[in-house]
Amino acid sequence: MPTRPKPKLNLxxxxxxxxxxxxxxxxxxxxWVMFKIQKQELIDSALQVNQAxxxxxxxxxxxxxxxxxKRLEYAAGLLGGSFGDARQxxxxxxxxxxxxxxxxxxxxxxxxxTIIASAPEHLHLNGRSLQDxxxxxxxxxxxxxxxxxxxxxxxxFVSQPVFDSQGQYLGLVGGSIRLEHKNALQDxxxxxxxxxxxHVYLVDGNRRVLYHPYPERIGEIVARDxxxxxxxxxxxxxxxxxxxxGVEMLAxxxxxxxxxxxxxxxxxxxxxxxxxxxxxxxxxxGILPLGLFGVVLIWWLGAxxxxxxxxxxxxxxxxxxxxxxxxISAIPAxxxxxxQIRRALLLGTSLLQEKIGRLNQQAxxxxxxxxxxxxxxxxxxxxxxxxxxxxxxxxxxxxxxKRVNDTFGHGVGDETLRAIAGLMKxxxxxxxxxxxxxxxxxxLLLPNSSLRTATEVAERLRAxxxxxxxxxxxxxxxxxxxxxxxxxxxxxxxxLEKADQLLYLxxxxxxxxxxxxxxxxxxx
Length: 524
Description:
49% of the residues lie in helices and 19% in strands. The chain is α+β, with helices and mostly antiparallel strands and 524 residues long. It folds into two domains: 8-316, Beta-Lactamase; 360-516, Alpha-Beta Plaits. Strands 1, 2, 3, 4, 5 and 6 form a six-stranded antiparallel beta sheet that branches. The protein has a five-stranded antiparallel beta sheet with strand order 8-7-11-10-9. Strands 13-14-12-15-16 form a five-stranded mixed beta sheet, sandwiched between helices. It starts with 10 loop residues before the first helix and ends in an 8-residue tail after the last strand.
């Protein structure tokens, strides 16, 4: 009879290859675990550094804004006593502007919001109205959100209310910080230069960029950025996420308390990966010599270990030889596996019979539910007919099972069938035979059962299924038909068809019910 070609590899080579593969796989896995741990440590370190960096910068911004507010507060106190003196108002505006480079312009307004003094003079602001009436209405120190000036410049306005000695509100004094222009805030941020794509930027409560190392992004409204969301909603922290441009970033953030601005210090995750790849390349070069030595050692040990197996394989080709038992017994079993193989050769016949028995059992079972399949059911029916043993038939079908497959998928449908099979087993007697006839159709055969008993079993099974809570599907119902076969009362096929007809009557009658054959329930 035809056979497959003889394999070119022997057991020794296969074992050696497997051992080598296992060793290399272990080495690769160790390398990968080391890579992952080192990567996570670098990521955690970068997040901590960025958070500390953002916190330090936020503290610096807070100091700049606090200093600006204190200078304006001092000026407001001076102006409260001489608010009607235009020369003093102009002088104070020029003094504030020239004191340092915090403000790009300074102005004083009356209570109606009209600018009555300003610096520098070339802006010609006197007589104009304040763009944003909020500082006038609130009458308290304010750091505004960024806005476009009449000239189209992006500004932040810091102001202090002015009151006279009786507490009457006179107006306000304030300074504008032009975000695209040189000032104390810009100088502070410009000093935070980082390398390799790492950078720091500043946003206000409206998600508008107040500072960025790329000037073209100043004034941009940032949308859908979890890092910005965290910076504006939390006091401080660190986060690994994609920025608005879709680049994976390691970011630290902190909030500026007085203004509600968010400071973000971030660097691309790719920086960490590049650094890590270089490090791991050096590690790989360092362990390569030891790895090669390990491969040679494993090859030698593998050859020693496989020697008994090779002798057993050679003996297996001559099992019909008179001295085969003695020859196999003489092979040293230095470890458990060689002893087990030697024992398997001596017990081969019994193992083969056990395998045949298992195959026969599989042929009689439904692969999905573990119930008896149609072949097993037919064998049982043929045997009972031969020995003239009466039996009852319960034919069962799942109601609206197509909805389960259509709604939840066939995987959930299979789980439902297995759950129904389990309930059938629970509600069956020791001698009963639960079967899956096909699809969602089941049959329960009850040998030596009366029609009354079979109907009670069917009703108990129906109630058990209706009450069961099946994962994902919830509650389902079944319809059942019950018939009885007795020797001399027709064919078994007719009894099966009768049970199916009763099942369909149950479905037509509204489902979730049992319909039994109409005869005396005492008949057995």
